[in-house]
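Anyone? Bumping this.
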Amino acid sequence: MTEHRTGYARVVTAARFDLDAMLADPVTKIVVCCGSGGVGKTTTAAAIGVRAAEVHGRRVVVLTIDPARRLAQSMGLTELDNTPRQVKGIDTEGTGGELHAMMLDMKRTFDEVVQEHTTPQRAAEIFANPFYQAMSSTFAGTQEYMAMEKLGQLQGTDEWDLIVVDTPPSRSALDFLDAPARLSRFLDGRMLRLLLAPARSGGRSVFSLVTASFGLFSRAVQKILGAQLLTDLSGFVAALDSMFGGFRQRADETYRILQDPQTAFLLIASPERDAVREAAYFAERLVAERMPLAGLVLNRVHRSELPGLTADEAERAAAALDETDGNEVTADALRIHASLLRQTERETRVAATFSDAFPAVPMAAVTAQPTDVHDVDGLRTIGAALATAGQP
Amino acid sequence: MGDQQRTSRWPARLHVVTGKGGTGKTSVAAALALGLAEGGRRVLLVEVEGRQGIAQLFGAEPLPYKELRIAQVPGGGEVRALAVDAEEALLEYLEMFYRLGAAGRALRKVGAIDFATTIAPGLRDVLLTGKVKESTTRARDGRRVYDAVVLDAPPTGRIGRFLNVTAETARLAKVGPIKTQSEGVASLLRSPITSVHVVTLLEEMPVQESLDAIAELRALDISIGRIILNGVRPPLLGESKVTKAELKRGLTAAGLAADAGTVAVLQDEAKAHLTRRGLEESLRAELAELGLPMVELPLLARGVDRDGLDALAEALMGD
């Protein structure tokens, strides 16, 4: 049943993404939902969680990293903290599944990592440092890195049969993959070593022992940043120094898990140019990094049950009806039909840019719902729609 | 109406355009820049997130760190575009104020700039907004270089933090040039020169995020210009009920097939339209409660190209 996951490399027939096959496969332990902002990632992740628990009897945890707390709303939870909470209102009587959900608390996760890798005294110093405070809440990539860290933690407990991850609403979906490497690069960077040199040798001032060739450089830094800032900075890097090895090792381990066949990456997009382009970038990366790409989910796709009446015909007929009396309603109904068909055409064109580039990546299109999803019933409907989208 | 009067309806000189991802804020920012360039004006369109969204929109090569002309507007106006990069901005800043030269290059070589902007992300935002401030206030021979600057800003989820530069840096730098720089940016953002516009679709999530962002910005004393409703569909069907009998009669009158299947599908499509419109109306009412001026932009039937951007520009200016 791993066919669909490795399929992108071999299968050349028009591939449909089969959600149920993926969720029924006991090998699948992690589903990562990636895509740009505003494409329904969180909803898709939650819907997959509901279906996995209800239909496939799995013990699922959905990890969301979205600060808008949307998953909380749609799952009827008032508060999501850093620990998984069981979701009520789902029907798992027949299957014995369970659904839990949690929202990543970035700062708290970072604090936990620090505590785990250093002594209580060091941890206290780190927490008090203004650089740590800035970095733990705003470092570009901290969210992604901490999401990885949390995923690693959840995976490590063996408590979960399936982990569904909703990736952060990044600038770029690729940030999720790049964050650990960026952190490693940062920790290995020359700048950090430069700053650490005096700290490591017990020096007092950050730049006092820097070699003469950097004199010009250190003067420049002093001039721009000021002495107080440098003191804080040196304290921070010195304190962090003790935990670097642990940091990097964890990030590398999580990256390896993501390459393992137990993981399935799902690209999520809406049928819009930017969203599909972003999905294509991500697909390229996944293929290049040999990461298991399960498929593309196109959310909020429109379709008409009456493609035989073309947009042009409908518009012409509407214009003709405008010249008559008492046919306003039909004229408008025809215009609605025409605009629906035009939207469908536009969406098909956009979707084709992806399938032309990645013909073997299975795809599923989920029809737009008239209103947004607010509850478990809505998630169940989306999950079912996603599952049937993959059936021939 | 004359061009002068039209552009004067957008009185700020720095227009910050934000919106939830997927609402089309980059297209709206570009259209606003085109609109503000009418009457022979010169406008700078800036992006700060390294997405190269402007270049893609205009079908141009990726933008370097340079102000390049990206569009001309009838009447002699032009739009220049700039993709601000934090590293480049810092080097430029150092050059301008400290004449660092070789030392500046050394900073980059050892990764100092990457380091500084990584460890103190607030610093990155100060550099980005600092560059925006510089281009907004730049003058040559006693004349402003740009009549208006339009910033394609980070999305609603990050806009508060992005614009609240002083708070982010105050923690780190209590004295010195970073503090001075961020204070300068902060006062520009809170002055009448700046206006923040929020782009949204009439959908629940974007509207909710817009409301959250507006509340956040107001709490920061940053004033909101307009709410821009993007992708608005023409109002069809009014208050009408759509009956099968009526559709059957109408289809027959139009000489189209009027079988039960066709009628049922058209009725379903009309009902779905009415459901969505009902939702849109309640969202519109929710936004109207904010008491901010709203402008509506039509859904572009053929996607966003230069013609589409010009149509949006006209809708923005003609309002």
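Late reply, but here is one note on the structure posted above: Chain A touches chain B through 73 residues (CB under 8 Å).
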